[in-house]
Amino acid sequence: MDQLVEQAARRVDARKKKVEELAKEAEEIKNRGNEKFKKGDYLGAAEVYVHAINYSGPTPVLLSNLAMAYFKLNHFEESLWAATAALEYDPRFLKARFRRAMARKELSLYKAAVKDLETIIAEQPDNEAAQQELKAIRTILQHDQGLNVNATERDHPRFDAEPWETYMDSDTEDSQHFGNLTPCRFYNHAGCIRGSQCRFSHAPDNDSFGDAKCIYSHDKRFLPAGGWWNDPAKVEAAKALRRESDFYDILEFDLHSALMEYPKASGFAAKLQREEVIEQVNLDYEIIEETEGIIAMPSPKRFVLLLCFEQYELFNPINTHLLSALRNKIKVVEVRESPNSIETALRHLAMPNLASVLVADPSIIKRKYKTLVIKLVEYVKNGGSVALAGQFSSHITPPDFDKFMKHSWGLDWKFGAYHRTTFQTNPANELVRRNPSLDGSYSMKSVHVADILPEMAMYVPIEGARLQSLVFAATKIKDTSESPAVCARVGRGLLSFLGDVNREDSSTNTILAMLGLLDEPNAPLASPPSAASTSSTAAGPSTTQRGQSGTTSENGKNKKKKQSKSQKSSQRSEDRARRTGYAVISDDDEVQVRTDYIMGPRSERVESTGYAVVSDDDDDDETEVMTEYVIGSRSEGVERTGYAVVSEDNIPRVGIAIAPQDLIENTGIAVECSSKFVLIVALANAEMFARIYAHQISALKKKVEVKTAVTASQALVHLTSPDICAVYIVDEGIARPTNSLVLTKIVDYIKAGGQAVIGGLFPSMTTPPDITKTLSNFGVPWRAGSYSRTEAERNGHHEAAIKNPSLSEAFYMKAVHLTGFHAEELFYEQYPQNTDDWEAPILRTRLGKGHLSYNGDVNAETESTDIVLAMLELLTPKRAIVPDSKKFFMILTSYHEQKEVMDRFLNKFIEDAKEKAEVLYGLSNARVIDLLPSRDLLGILITDPYILDIENEYLLSKVVEYSKQGGTVVFGSVFSLQVTLTQFRPLFRDNWGLDWDFCIGPQDTKVTKNSKNSLAKKMDDSKVPKTFQINGIYVRGIAPSMAVYIPQNRPNLWKPADNNFSSSIIYTDVEKGHLGFIGVNSMDDEIRTIFYTMIGLS
């Protein structure tokens, strides 16, 4: 035993010596960084601080110094992170807190900055710098509230919080000795006398931690006395964190968030936390060094800021010509959708070396980007240049365009016509005069801008310009006042717009000129132009197409005559109809269709869109309306677009059944009920497919509505629709690299429960390598095989064959066969087999929650039609999931295929519930929405926050609507564990108007039934006790009557005198329905009975 004590003492001394050596060298490295900082070499200083952190681990001082270096480099987001990390290791480090306050200020996080400064002044009342900054920020807050941060993030870490423990490597050099990777049995017991010469491993491995029996036979005497393992509270926190990590392994465990909840476990997780901090430090520095380090140079290079938040995957592959030209001219900083994208954009927008801004998609008009738009407008007014191009014109609706221009930019620009013709430069335009390299003329398919001054147009139609279309007659362009490329002075700067939807090569120079990068830069005006010179209405609308608007006199100085409210509404409807071709309602409730040309992006094929068009005789009194429903981009559901549709008797109708009458009267928009549809994806040979496979199309239309996507953007829009019931890929276009995003979205659609068939022209028009490559994107091992005519024989054991007994047992077909499949995927087999490889012409397999099918028939055999219908699940009607006579409730969960989670939290509950009612879960979003109107639906249980994902936005809106119309929605099970602070409050506030927030961490509390709650009054005391113990998540901000149970003797949760009310079980009315919350993750015993009572099943 004395030998062990002696060994322990030696190791303590070795550990102490190593710590001192590391600290001394880290201090020397830090001092070198400080010297660089003093000389103004902030990037060099940051590099040294990063090196020190990698060498000796993160310390509060090193992280704080790194935060200051990043601040000086204008990298405020990275500075904020580093300062927060420093505070986590030392919450009382006021210098780091001040640096975080400064970073927060620069990121417009004013209220959070105030919190830090108030903390500093409370500890150092004489801190003049903090006092001055606090005064300055409070002045800003009087007119700009900045960006909000939730209370937890704002206050973390509190000044009096316990510091997170740092991790120190093992004490001796031979502790890092890995040897032959087999653990040494002597090293951590009595000690290994061979040291680093031992052929076995002295380093920790996966068996050194956790519950596995450790081969090292640890003795606590060999560990530091003050470690977490000797503190019972820290041991309990470590166990809780370990339980969380065990559960979250399958759910992407977030260590930092877990430590915020269990800070006493920081010692247990110190090694992993150190690794994460170092990884983040290295990543931030690498990005700054490669893309932003240039800012630290004495003469910083200029850059263009590219904002493309939600359409980058579509923008990037189809704008390669533009991006290449931009990067050859100037540095390009791209900002895409990310948790910090707004802050990143704001930071770059404030940099002095910003040359101009390219806004490449219309997502910026969304409310969450309001602060960014305000700063963007300020940037232009102060002399900057902003161009709206790329995907902007393809994905913005006419009303949104008009509103954005008017309210954000003060311009009366209107969304104009949409067609292709040839344009020429306008010498009256300032950009044209400054950029002689612009193409003198070129053909462009474009969204035009109306209501502009003549000099705002960069390009105008050539003399005698005619409509260029494969569909319409080449009629002469009547209204030449509109332009596809425009610019206008806003303050001292320049705003431009390009409506080109096909990314013509000549448009690259147009955009470069707009950004001031072609021939001459866009110099700011010495002073802002007068209102008269920038008002686009001063020119007045064209009388050729629109007629007089009545807004100005001939000299543009007379004011409008006062109009009544009804006159204004009528005028707006007429203006919109004349401008866009929308259907409007006349005074006698008849639908009228205006005679404008096609409007709206992606409506090249009239027979595919159903827009109103002018007939060939060019007579304004003759209007043709195509007899198919709208499919163009941004017209997914007719009720959302207001375009006219045609009934069976070829008369344009309005969907009065679902369109509120006041909506029709106020907007003049005709509405059509949406319905389920099959999407035909024909991105290369739509006309050929329609001609050869007419029999299939006809059969499909007898079963369901059919929509055809002939462009990638059309396909992407339709794939987001809740009404899509299947996808039919019919040509080789899907194999092209430019359509890779469409392919990815189809794969996602199938895995989420959709049905997709690959067939039509695809087998015959796609090369074998491309067939194999395309199929690999679906994750199946299928490969292109032989091309031959053989007999196809049905596999009677395939599930699709069993469900559809009417299918042909065998028929002859010429097909491109596949190989590499599994036996259960064989739908029709090649007979006899012509090759050594097992081949088949028709396959069907399960993919995620849905199915993928392949039909290699190249001659459109009549037998194939029913096979395609069967693969799309349209041949034999589906068996009803819910009997009409039985009550049911639905569980909305993303865990239905994760056995571990289901076994732990839900399976026993479901078994019990099935004795009382039908329980449905694992349904597709479309099926859930279908069942919401059922009178037999008792309610909905939502078990996790997957419903808050953007792809489930429509489902959430329908669930909210269901609750308000009389249904019951309950959030329970692991929802309270999985939802984040930033998700919880907006969910209930924005959808139900409830300002709820939840308390961090579960509370083990005795609770008593609340006699004032409507649910509590219904509950049977014999089934649910009046008082019991609950360990759950509590929600605060509730009204007293909302609490089903009241916590006892917990003033932090329930104190009427302070208007403080919280509960872990809530039930309240929401309009005609009910909303429940259960903050306990287990659906057992009393909790189960409470839920049954909520949905009326008790």
Short structural summary:
With 1098 residues, the protein is α/β, with parallel strands linked by helices. The chain has 40 helices and 37 strands.
- Estimated radius of gyration: 34 Å
Described by the principal axes of the CA atoms, the overall outline is globular
CATH class of the domain at 888-1007 and 1014-1095: Alpha Beta
Number of helices: 40
Under the CATH scheme, which architecture of the domain at 888-1007 and 1014-1095 would be assigned? 3-Layer(aba) Sandwich
CATH T-level fold name of the domain at 888-1007 and 1014-1095: Rossmann fold
How would you characterize the largest beta sheet? 9 strands, mixed
* Main structural class: alpha/beta
Topology:
Layout: H1 2-38, H2 42-56, H3 60-72, H4 76-89, H5 94-106, H6 110-123, H7 128-141, H8 151-155, H9 232-248, H10 255-261, H11 270-292, E1 303-307, H12 312-318, H13 320-329, E2 331-335, H14 341-349, E3 354-359, H15 370-381, E4 385-388, H16 392-395, H17 398-409, E5 414-425, H18 430-434, E6 441-450, E7 459-461, E8 485-490, E9 493-498, H19 506-514, H20 531-534, H21 565-580, E10 583-585, E11 591-593, H22 606-609, E12 612-614, E13 623-625, H23 638-641, E14 645-646, E15 652-653, H24 661-667, E16 677-681, H25 686-692, H26 694-703, E17 705-709, H27 712-719, E18 724-729, H28 740-751, E19 755-758, H29 762-765, H30 768-776, E20 783-794, H31 799-803, E21 810-819, E22 826-831, E23 842-847, E24 850-855, H32 862-871, E25 888-892, H33 899-905, H34 907-913, E26 918-921, H35 925-931, E27 937-942, H36 953-964, E28 968-971, H37 975-978, H38 981-992, E29 997-998, E30 1003-1009, H39 1014-1018, E31 1027-1032, E32 1035-1036, E33 1045-1047, E34 1054-1055, E35 1060-1063, E36 1065-1070, E37 1073-1078, H40 1085-1094
Parallel strand pairs: 1-2, 1-3, 3-4, 4-9, 16-17, 16-18, 18-19, 19-24, 25-26, 25-27, 27-28, 28-37
Antiparallel strand pairs: 5-6, 5-7, 8-9, 10-11, 12-13, 14-15, 20-21, 20-22, 22-23, 23-24, 29-32, 30-31, 30-33, 32-35, 34-35, 36-37
